[in-house]
Amino acid sequence: MDQYFIIDFDSTFTQVEALDELARISLKNHPDREKIYEQIEELTNASMEGRLSFTQSLEARVKLLQANREHLKQLITHLKKKVSTSFSRNTIFFKNHQDEVLIVSGGFKEFITPVVTEYHIKKENIYANTFVFDDEGNIIGYDRKNPLSQEGGKVKLLKELNLPGEIFGIGDGYSDFQLKESGMIKKFFAFTENIERKSVAEKADHITPSFDEFLYINKLPRAISYPKNRIKCLVVGNVDEDALAQMQKEGYNIRQRESIEDKYLEEAGILFCDEENQPTPEQLQNAGRLKAIGIFGKISSRKLGEIACENGIIIFDDPKHNPRNDDFIPKRVMAFMNEGKTHTSCNFPDLQPPRINNAHRLIHIHKNVPGILAKINDVFARHNINIVGEFLVTNPQIGYVITDVNTGYDTQVLNELKAIEQTIKFRLLY
User: What's one GO BP annotation on this UniProt entry (predicted)?
Assistant: First the structure.
């Protein structure tokens, strides 16, 4: 059965509400701009939360805009920089599903089309309102015959389209939920990467904090193998808020505690701690999910670094208490999690592999014994998988291998790589 993906634009495909942003551009020099901004934002939220009909909200907002074609050009430039992070990194999905992806929005084609077509979305699959202009290019209204300008417009549109297959809806607002309520779509995913509207989220089939999460649970192609919102980052001690903000922006699930408790460490994929609150070597033995530790200060002992290394856990520390460690540590951890880079680690061999486009990256950490690389390559050879880049570094404890391959693979390949004797950790990056 065919599958179709109905995706909202404002606060979903982009991080912002476009009409709100247009108001900030068009009313920049208006003496009452702050008051009007507040009115427009309240009208937007009232509509998105189901407290005001979409028709009433749209009509009132367009009247307040005082915008023209020149303002729209500025808005388009702005919106292209505001595409939601998890959408922008999954261009491959849109390229592979051009016929099945539809942008359905109560916004306007004049600013939506230039933004989404850069992501392989077809013009004929963009459904939105259109402005009406006067001879000087001023916005004086919109096409009221368009079903998307009316209350329940998305439901009306889908009835007209009569798509032959399963339909999944992704959005942040009440008008997106109405598709589910109408029975016309199989599942509604409340998209919360930019804003979470409680009245919408509590009615959704699934809350998706990122587009990666949506692709993951539906087993669809994606830029990263595992959604970051599913990786817990345990934070203990005095860790700067700026460092945590970086990790939250990246999508990690932040969990703050007063001390390192075993049950929380065992669930964590990343640990951030200060110099006074470091894990014991014994605690690391049971932290099977832990991949990286960022210490905001000096590592407590050589033994801690060695035990972490033996268990495939990388450590980045800051022995000189650099005043910029709130920036340094998160960036090093993210470079490891995203690219496999180990540079400046205090316990792993140094490797800074270049990113290879159109390739899958796999990381294999194993005990430093002879013959492991040959076994890894034998798995790829038996499955006719071409290696486009391979990097191996070692220290006395471990071998660290990054392999980039340019073809797809089945789970059997991954299982065989994990099963190689002396394997400590195996990870698929993207």
Answer: L-serine biosynthetic process
